[in-house]
Write a structure and sequence with these properties.
The complex is a heterodimer of chains A (115) and B (111). Chain A has 115 residues and is mostly beta strands. Chain A is 0% helix and 50% strand. The chains are: A mainly beta (115), B mainly beta (111).
Chain lengths: 115, 111
Amino acid sequence: EPEVTQTPSHQVTQMGQEVILRCVPISNHLYFYWYRQILGQKVEFLVSFYNNEISEKSEIFDDQFSVERPDGSNFTLKIRSTKLEDSAMYFCASMLSSGGAGELFFGEGSRLTVL
Amino acid sequence: QKEVEQDPGPLSVPEGAIVSLNCTYSNSAFQYFMWYRQYSRKGPELLMYTYSSGNKEDGRFTAQVDKSSKYISLFIRDSQPSDSATYLCAMIDTGGFKTIFGAGTRLFVKA
C-alpha cells in the first residue's frame, strides 16, 4: 500500500541551527501539507502546497519556515533558525485532490528536539 | 472562540461499552467532516468521512453531523482494547485547502 515516508524520524539540534525535514508523498497525490503537533497538544496546520507553490499557510508558518518540492518527489520543510518552541512532531501529509474529495494521508512524523 | 472544540479526555471505558465522542465548531463554511484515529507516536489515519449533515455507518463506527447545531459525533459500538487511541475530529471548509483538527480525545478501552 502506498505511504508517505518521512526522514529523519528524530532530530536533535541546537537552538539557532537550520533543520530540513524531508517527506516523500504518495506518488500520484497533488496536494502536500505540513502539520505540527507539540507534545500533548493538537495537530496544527502549517502549510499547504499545490502546483509548486504555497496555497495556504498559517500564522505559525512565519519567515523562518520554508517549503520546497525540489525534484518532483521530495517535499521538504526547512526551519532556518530553530527556537526551543519549535520542538514538536512534524507530520507531512498528502492528498490526491482537494476539498471534500480528499483524505489526508500522513507520514509517521519527524520528531524535532531543539536544545 | 476556537474554530473546533473537542474535549481532550481522557475517556476510559470497559470493553464492550458504547463510546460517544463529539466536537463542536464555529465556522459555518465547514462542509466536510472527518474522524481520524491516532495511535501513540504515529500519524493520524482517516477513520470516517461525512459530507454535510447526516449519519454514516461503517462496521462498529457511526459518524453523525448536525450542521444546524454545529455538532459532530462519533459512536463506537462494542469497543475493543485495540480502539484505545486518540480520536481527532477534523473539518474542511468549502475552499478546501486545509484540514482543521480538534484537540483530540484520548480513549482507553479496558479489557
